[in-house]
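Write out the 3D structure for:
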Amino acid sequence: MQIITTTQLRTNTKQLTQSLNRGETIKLIHHSKIIGNITPLVYSPISDSKKTKVLFSKAIKNAQKIFSETSKFLPKNNEGLMKNYYNLLLKKHGKNIS
């Protein structure tokens, strides 16, 4: 696909993306005039993978930090959790809980 009209932009998007993935440049036509070129982005998969590795390692470190801080506030077992829940119910509704 080397030439595409503005109407075909809407209808043939799958073919357009396939052409761009192959590295083809496409001319855009509107009212029988070439108004522009659609060119694929040039990127290096190696540099992208390095960037994603760095981002993932930072995200994992942040997640570990957050989980280690929040674990201090959580009860160690289910009994402590139920005791806290029961105490909150007592405070909210009084002693007459069935």
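The helical segments are 6-11, 13-21, 45-70, 78-93.
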